[in-house]
Structure formats: structure tokens, C-alpha cells
Design brief:
Length: 516
């Protein structure tokens, strides 16, 4: 037997170590910074809590058109913040960061729809929600720097307030130095006590950052912590797998997608906003956005939200059911035949509600009048209600009547059918579908750039519960964002799951490709 010298053994061992070492660091050699994402099952109770909050006017059209967190009139500024519209109660994907030296661990939503970093503060002692989450203790960090400026953010389903501080932030294997963050000393109990996350790390543009704070991503670029000015999301929609997905800073992992990305330019910095074209249901054009619509890619939203009048029609096409609301009945009773006459006279559908005096027209679409309307729960004649609800109901009625006219029905049949739709509701509350019909539901497609991006029923239906207790919920929700920011489509995880999404900061563009 030949003897193996100690030096040969040492060299072999060294080569073996180098081999495995190179494999372990291959991700960093690519110039990528990878953040593993955790996935939480969709929580129906959380969604219903969000809807309850929205009824209080913190979330949908009637209130968000008035003021942002700094008290400025949204209608006076094109760059006004729509962060107040955000609802994190149904968010599903989270990751971990560290703040301070040594790092204190926090679970955060990496949110492309906002731009601030905030976590609960150790100084949060009067908000019950803070006791259910990790809290940042500045006194235990050797890199903490005081700022002290007050900060407050009003979200769709809650609010946080506190003050700014500076500290190092660990994202994956890199340290972002001297990062501005908000220490939250007050958090809405209902929203954040039930939340699975501690805080938010915003990945939007600085233009929408509260207090003008420099976002974490900007500092990652400025401090040369990433190879390319790009980050990308791969969200794992397979409910059976534990891996939630991956956020890659500094590039794009080819294992996360198939084919080529379709890129579109960012049209309005703040959110990752871009233009979309026509929307198809079952391969048939709807012409809803034939003249162009705006959308944002939002990793902090689980569902896919859009203007009420359009989403209601999509939910109608897929067989979603909800509760009725009196404004719809009132519109049909008072204006149904006038709407039919105007449609038959070839009036532009988007101007009809302004022609009959329910909405005003801002050169692109109808918007609600700033007066009160009166609606009856019984006969549509008189009770309380605001014009935003009447305007939305009118827009829905126009679309429904337009669809009915295409089928050459009599006016009496059309009125009867539209009234029935009002009774079924299809409003912004529960949009439940028959789980047994999922395979029969039509595909819904969005035109982005020169390509159609198709969502199958498996993509846009969320199943909650198991067996006979299972319920199936439409992933399309009405979400009215007022001008100047709106109307907008919010493409959340329902869209970003099937389509790998690239946020190209350097070239100010967003890209989509089929997820692997």
C-alpha cells in the first residue's frame, strides 16, 4: 500500500475546502444579494378586517381624495402620496433584516408601493400592537445616531407615528450605513396587532417618502453595495412549498423566469408606475383600457386592484357574488333609461354619468361631484349617501347596460337584468366564487408593452380553508384612487406571482416575464 504524505493530504484537503467554499459564495460572486422570502397563508379574517376598516372611510375613494398624512390636499399636487390607500392586512410575503450594531432582527414587508423604513420602537409603550412585535432598542446599538424629527404615515387600514433615527441596516450580507428610519411609537391596534410582520421596508422612489427620507435602496446604490441598479422579485405561488420566494438585489436570476422580459418605462416616479393597454376577458377585448390606463407593480399588495366599474365587470364575468348596495338601484331607477338612450345615441360611455349630472368630467373620465346625494334603501329616493358612491354606481350601471345592449335585449329586460345585478351586488365587499367552477372561469389578460399577460383562474382565485369549509375568493378588488394619482391599477402578488418582476432603477423601467 502506497503511503500518502501529509503534505499531499493537506493540499487535497485545502482544494476540497476551496471547492465547497466557492460553491457557498457563488451567489455573492454573481453580484447578487439574495433575500429569502417567507410566505404566510392568505388569511380571510384579515381581509374582512381590512374591509371593515375601509367602511370607515380610511381606505377607498371617499376619504383618500381629501388629505394625505401631511394634511396637503391631494387634488393640489400631482405627486401627492397614495400610501394612505395601502392595506397590509392581507400581505403574504416577508423577509428579515437587521438594524443596529450588533444587528437586531426584524421581519419586514419589502414593499415597492412605499418608500420608508419603519419598525416598532422600544419607546412604544402605549400602543398594544407594539407588544406583539420585535422592538428597536437604539441604546443597544453602537452605530445609532439621533435625529428626532416627528413622522407619521396613514395607511389604508391603519396608521403609525414616531420619529426619525439613523442606524446601520443589514440586508442579507451587506450593511447599509447611516440609514434613516422611523421608530414607530404608536401603531394602530386592529391592523398591526394581527400583522405577521414587524415593519415595512419601502422600495419605491424617494418622491413619495415621508419626510423626504432617503430609501434603503438608494443608499445601497450610493454605497456601491450592489453590482447593478436593479432588483427583482420571484414569488412562489405553490402553496405546498415552504419557500416563499426570493428578492434579488443587484441583478436578475435566470433560474427565476422563462423567456424574455417585456420592459415598459416608468411614467411617473414615486410608485413603480407604467402604462397598460386593453384588458381581455376570455380572449375578448373589453376596451376598458383601449385608450390607455396606468398601473403600479406593488409587492406590498396581495390582490389585484383596479377602478370599481371595471373590476365589478370582471368579477361579474367570473361569477363572483357579493352583497347589494342601494346606490346602484337608485341609479337604475332614476337614470337607467337615460343611460340607454345616450348609449344608443353613441355618446362616449365615460362621459355619460357627467351628462346626467351624477359625476363631473375631468377630460379623461368621470369623477364624483363634491355634493351630497340622497338615496333610499327601499325605493332609491331618499336617505344618506355621498356622491362618490353614486358616481361609482353610475359607472357600473353604464358598463352593465352597455353589455346588455350588445345582446339586443329590450329596454324592459335590460332594466330588469341590471336591477338583478344590483341585488347581487358585486361591490367592494366579499367577492366569493364557486370553488367547483374554477376550471371553467375565463382567463383575464392585461396588455403591457407589446405583449398580453394572461392570468388563469388558478392565478386570480384564492382558496381559503380546506375540504367542505373551503371558500374561494376573487383576487380582483375594486379600489378607486382619485385624480391626480388615479385612476390606477395595482398589480399585487396575484400578478407578480405568475410573472417574475424586475425593477430597473438605473433605466427607470419595469419588466415582466413568465415565472419559473
Amino acid at each position: 500500500m502506497r503511503k500518502i504524505s501529509f503534505s499531499h493530504l493537506l493540499v487535497s484537503l485545502l482544494l476540497l475546502i476551496l471547492h465547497y467554499s466557492s460553491e457557498a459564495t457563488s451567489a455573492s460572486n454573481e453580484g447578487f444579494l439574495r433575500i429569502g422570502l417567507k410566505k404566510i397563508k392568505y388569511d380571510q379574517n384579515s381581509r374582512f378586517k381590512a374591509l371593515l376598516e375601509s367602511k370607515k372611510g380610511e381606505f377607498l375613494g371617499s376619504s383618500v381624495g381629501k388629505h394625505n398624512q401631511w394634511g396637503n390636499n391631494l387634488e393640489e399636487s400631482k405627486n401627492a402620496d397614495i400610501v394612505p390607500l395601502k392595506n397590509y392586512l392581507d400581505a403574504q410575503y416577508y423577509g428579515e433584516i437587521g438594524i443596529g450594531t450588533p444587528p437586531q432582527k426584524f421581519t419586514v414587508i419589502f414593499d415597492t408601493g412605499s418608500s420608508n423604513l419603519w419598525v416598532p420602537s422600544a419607546k412604544c409603550i402605549f400602543s398594544l400592537a407594539c407588544f406583539f412585535h420585535a422592538k428597536y432598542q437604539s441604546g443597544r446599538s453602537s452605530t445609532y445616531k439621533r435625529n428626532g424629527t416627528s413622522a407619521a404615515i396613514q395607511y389604508g387600514s391603519g396608521a403609525i407615528s414616531g420619529f426619525f433615527s439613523y442606524d446601520n441596516v443589514q440586508v442579507g450580507d451587506v450593511i447599509v450605513r447611516n440609514q434613516e428610519l422611523i421608530e414607530a411609537t404608536s401603531m394602530s391596534t386592529m391592523t398591526f396587532m394581527a400583522a405577521k410582520f414587524d415593519g415595512i421596508l419601502g422600495l419605491g422612489f424617494q418622491e413619495i417618502a415621508t419626510g423626504g427620507a432617503v430609501p434603503v435602496w438608494y443608499n445601497m446604490v450610493k454605497q456601491k453595495l450592489v453590482k447593478e441598479q436593479v432588483f427583482s422579485f420571484w414569488l412562489n405561488r405553490n402553496a405546498e412549498e415552504k419557500e416563499g420566494g426570493e428578492l434579488v438585489f443587484g441583478g436578475v436570476d435566470p433560474k427565476h423566469f422563462k423567456g424574455q422580459h417585456t420592459y415598459v418605462p416608468v411614467t411617473d416616479k414615486g410608485y413603480w408606475q407604467f402604462d397598460i393597454g386593453d384588458i381581455l376577458i376570455g380572449g375578448e377585448t373589453t376596451k376598458y383600457c383601449a385608450g390607455g390606463c396606468s398601473a403600479i407593480a406593488d409587492s406590498g399588495t396581495s390582490l389585484l386592484a383596479g377602478p370599481s366599474n371595471i373590476v365589478v365587470s370582471i368579477n361579474r364575468a367570473i361569477g363572483a357574488a357579493a352583497v347589494a348596495h342601494p346606490e346602484c338601484k337608485a341609479i337604475v331607477s332614476q337614470y337607467g333609461r337615460a343611460i340607454m338612450d345616450l348609449l344608443l345615441a353613441k355618446a362616449q360611455p365615460e362621459k355619460i354619468c357627467s351628462k346626467i349630472g351624477v359625476c363631473t368630467f375631468d377630460e379623461t373620465h368621470d369623477v364624483s361631484l363634491k355634493i351630497e346625494n340622497v338615496v333610499s334603501d327601499k325605493d332609491g329616493r331618499s336617505s344618506g349617501g355621498f356622491s362618490e358612491a353614486m358616481c361609482s354606481a353610475c359607472e357600473m350601471a353604464v358598463l352593465w347596460i352597455q353589455d346588455e345592449l350588445k345582446q339586443n335585449k329590450t329596454q324592459e329586460d335590460i332594466i330588469e337584468n341590471v336591477n338583478e345585478l344590483c341585488d347581487r351586488g358585486l361591490n367592494q365587499d366579499e367577492t366569493l366564487v364557486d370553488c367547483g367552477r374554477i376550471s371553467q372561469m375565463p382567463n383575464v389578460s392585461f396588455t403591457i408593452g407589446d405583449r398580453l399577460f394572461e392570468l388563469t383562474s388558478k392565478d386570480y382565485i384564492l382558496k381559503v380553508g380546506e375540504g367542505s369549509a373551503a371558500q374561494c375568493i376573487s383576487g380582483f378588488i375594486p379600489f378607486d384612487i382619485p385624480p391626480p394619482r388615479g385612476p390606477l391599477w395595482i398589480l399585487g402578488d396575484v400578478f407578480m406571482g405568475p410573472y417574475h418582476t424586475v425593477f430597473d432603477f438605473g433605466k427607470a423601467r419595469v419588466g415582466f416575464a413568465e415565472a419559473a
